[in-house]
Amino acid sequence: MLCPTDPVPHDGILIDWAYSTRVGGQIRAICPDEKSSYPPEVFAKKPASPATDIYMSALCMIRLLGGKITKSGPEIPTAVPRLIRGLLRSCLLSVAHRPKDVFEVFRDFEQILKQLYGPRKFRPFSMPRTAT
């Protein structure tokens, strides 16, 4: 889960390590309600790797973009630009063909965003305050 740390630079941190394991370890706990979110290597009892996280992060992003994860596979909305859909699909390939490095995916995503929307531009970020 991403948690905003500072609204000015739009940074985030990952929290909730309940199901974590070390690289090379085996994932021992699977959330039953989220079985469709796990890559095939988890059910084949293969060791966890950064590619495992990349797969699961891509599915999370697909959901955030309005897509669905079905038994026949993820459905990425056609409103999502083709280049972004392609990057997300590359993160769902077999573990041997999936990106191995999250920084590689991040750099590719930054390039795609620059190509689609131009150079980075600061946009003020404000969150409405909720009554307590």
How does this structure look, described?
This protein is of the alpha+beta class. It is 33% helix and 11% strand. It has a two-stranded antiparallel sheet with strand order 1-2. The two termini are 23 Å apart. Mean pLDDT is 85; it is low at 1-5.
What's the helix and strand layout?
Layout lengths: L1 E5 L4 E4 L25 H4 L6 H15 L3 E3 L2 E3 L6 H9 L11 H16 L15
Antiparallel strand pairs: 1-2, 3-4
In short:
The protein is an alpha+beta fold and 132 residues long. The protein has one domain: Transferase(Phosphotransferase) domain 1 (Transferase(Phosphotransferase), domain 1), CATH 1.10.510.10.
At the fold tier of CATH, the topology name is Transferase(Phosphotransferase), domain 1
Radius of gyration: 16 Å
CATH architect. name = Orthogonal Bundle
Mean pLDDT rating: 85
Keywords:
single chain, 132 residues, alpha+beta, Transferase(Phosphotransferase), domain 1, two-stranded antiparallel sheet, 33% helix, disordered N terminus
